[in-house]
Design goal:
The protein is α/β, with parallel strands linked by helices. The protein has helices spanning about 50-60, 80-85, 95-105, 125-130, 145-155, 170-175, 185-195, 245-250, 255-265, 275, 285-290, 305-315; strands at about 15, 20-25, 25, 30-35, 45, 65-70, 85-90, 110-115, 135-140, 160-170, 195-205, 210, 215-220. It contains twelve helices and 13 strands.
Length: about 325
């Protein structure tokens, strides 16, 4: 199996009772979360009121939207989201922060605080519970776990109308990168398979507390797949919460096979497709597939559009 982008494994978090045994609290949607938990190191809260307003203004929200907020934290954006949408479900893994938010926002009935992990939350179930055909997803994503969260969200693409996510500026460049550019890679293809992403707004380190060492960017995702016949059908069964946020486990066939193929194509970016794909196909087979697309034998993955990669995938069988 090829892997050009290693997913971040989420550590299992345990709490301990008086007898010293590890325990966990099981909430709705089959989500296990700890009883108490401190914020992770590296967690940066959006502190600038000016940037909060700019971000809220940039979101394409409607009065009847169901908004799923990822990592509500201290609620910096939660009330601004609720002012423009019909309902907000603010997901926060940290038990202390979740409890504080419930107390802070208890007088705002259209806001629900859900103590849960987005990597195991069933967004389809949330939509059904709130009688929403689709939801809008907003989040200030932790830098160290952006890729697994994106995989998880794209698994529920048919249930999401659009997304707006704050990510590291470098990651935003990779999500929106075009073929032939240095930033173009597996994450670009994954994102553009399920959506049409664009950078909306740059956010400096000073807008956060504590300020990170890198810049961030707000990326808008219109959930319009480029290969709709490969994307998970709405009628398909919801993803079990116990599954990990990995494309092989959560993507709907044949997208899962295609994404594995793309990871092999980008396994070593300095190598051409003939060499990268030699791990799983004969060189003769790959050479014939490239020739059928009028591509030279020394073609690299970063030179191909998503559609060209899809045709190559079909050609090699």
């Amino acid at each position: 199996m090829c892997s050009s982008e290693r997913g971040t494994r989420v550590p299992r978090v345990k709490t301990h009772g008086r007898d010293g045994r590890a325990t966990a609290t099981r909430l709705r949607y089959n989500v296990a979360v700890p009883r108490t938990r401190r914020p992770k190191l590296g967690q940066h809260f959006l502190a600038s009121a000016a940037y909060r307003r700019r971000i809220a203004k940039a979101l394409e929200l409607y009065p009847d939207d169901l908004v799923i907020e990822i990592g509500a934290g201290r609620g910096a954006m939660t009330e601004l989201l609720a002012a423009r949408a019909g309902r907000v479900v603010a997901i926060e893994l940290d038990a202390v922060l979740a409890a504080s938010l419930r107390e802070k926002l208890k007088a705002t009935p259209q806001i629900e605080i859900l103590q849960a992990d987005i990597l195991t939350t069933d967004l389809a179930a949330l939509c059904r519970e709130h009688e929403a055909e689709k939801c809008f997803v907003f989040g200030n994503l932790p830098y160290y776990i952006t890729s697994p969260i994106l995989h998880r969200l794209f698994a529920f693409a048919p249930w999401i109308r659009a997304m707006a996510l704050l990510v590291q500026r470098e990651v935003a460049g990779r999500l929106t990168a075009l073929p032939g550019t240095r930033a173009y890679g597996y994450l670009s293809v994954l994102t553009q398979l399920y959506s049409r992403p664009r950078v909306v707004l740059g956010v400096p380190p000073g807008a956060f507390s504590p300020p990170p060492k890198i810049h961030s960017a707000l990326v808008d995702f219109q959930m319009i797949p480029q290969l709709p016949e490969w994307v998970r059908e709405r009628e398909a069964s919801p993803i079990p919460a116990r599954q990990a946020a990995h494309p092989r486990e959560i993507a709907f066939e044949p997208a899962a096979r295609f994404l594995d193929f793309v990871k092999c194509c980008f396994a070593q970016k300095r190598k051409n497709l003939l060499n990268n794909l030699a791990r799983i196909y004969s060189r003769e087979r790959v050479g014939q597939a490239l020739a059928a697309l009028d591509l030279p034998a020394n073609t690299r993955a970063e030179q191909l559009t998503l559609e060209q990669l899809a045709r190559l995938f079909r050609n090699v069988g």
